[in-house]
Design goal:
This protein is α/β, with parallel strands linked by helices and about 475 residues long. The chain is built from 16 helices and 21 strands. A hairpin with a 4-residue loop joins strand 20 and strand 21.
Amino acid sequence: MTRTNWDVIVIGAGSAGENVADRAVQGGLSAVVIESELVGGECSYWACMPSKALLRSGLALRAAKSVGGAREAVTGELDVAAVFARRDKFTSNWNDDGQVSWLESAGIDLLRGRGRLTGKKAVRVTAADGTQLEITANHAVVVSTGSAALMPDVPGLAESRPWTSREATSAHSAPDSLLIIGCGVVGTEMATAYASFGTRVTLVTRGRLLGALEPFAGELVATGLEALGVTILSGVSPTRVRRSGDDAFVLDLDDGSEVSASELLVATGRTPVTGDIGLDSIGLTPGDWIQVDDTLRAPGFDWLYAVGDVTHRALLTHQGKYQARAAGDVIAARATGAPVRDEAWGAHVATADQAAVPQVTFTDPEVASVGLTAAAAEKAGHRIRVVDYELGQIAGASLHADRYRGRARMVVDESRQVMLGVTFVGPDVAELLHAATIAVVGEVPIDRLWHAVPAYPTMSEIWLRLLEEYGRPSA
């Protein structure tokens, strides 16, 4: 390609980068995305899609076994090889031809290589063969380079060559045993998946499981993991990692004990991929998260934007795409002189990043949440009331699975009589989440929710039970 100038340059062709370029093009601008790996990024090949593919088969099998009649029809065990083969289809065998075709159909150009800022609206692209191309943007450069697995500073850990989320989701067979350091979403989901494959899983954590969520979520997930045979070592941290003579990983723990397994997964958080993208050329610090305002523009720059994980606002694919739509639209609006709607909940802002982020953890049971936890709401200064209800008491839940176990919580802002947050824990609660998201984002008054009648007998009847626990409005 001999072209060297576009209206918008996007560094990173993951889902957020693709979406910001798409919205810019739909707004009448030209756009190019730069990618050094696979178009589609982390979610398509090493995160969301492959991880959920690895999880789904075991969840489906256990779901069938939890319903009388279906339980008796289940005659075999999980075909682990078939699970991995199905996962391969979702990653297109790590081939991005389909994603590249989509870019072409959307009118977005692609440059293969590493993009590095060299100054205002200027980027150098270095291809795999070392050749370089200097390109410029008329209006904006968008950084969408994402995040990578964080490697804690534990002696021997990096040298031992452990798995990160990438290796865990792209493995082609299940190890006999697996140690997992970390108890967040990646750690608990991969513990669920590999335990389903018959792997002996040990989860090592210094805190409670899913610590950013409501406490009961981690408790119910811990119970579910233990039912799958997972050993949870809580309140401990690794002090050293080494390889034994049979090439197993050995963790020395700070309580004086040690544990070993044939593979080790590090799932302790994420770090921004900004170390070598030229931030220093414009006065920013390499390796830092990129701070942005609600229009996703970096303060102090009228041309620099960032979307997705690299902003550290909400490290979730759907939030990155949400940010990207706002950013692409506002770049086009600013470029063409169209009105900019940057008020809260306007078309050109990512307001939901602050207090209305939906998230599903695909463990067994699932955890689906949106908005603030009770602790976060109190910390923010809200006067709240917390309402809990056992999901297993809902008629729809009892039909969904024998001995269904789960819980729901809504956090109500008593001053405004609206919900600040909702959490569901239980089998298949992910499909309840969007109704909660609408209620939180729309700030639907509690009194009005009484008129949103859930169909019977469905699990959505949980809404009626939560409202009854809260109390019907008086005349």
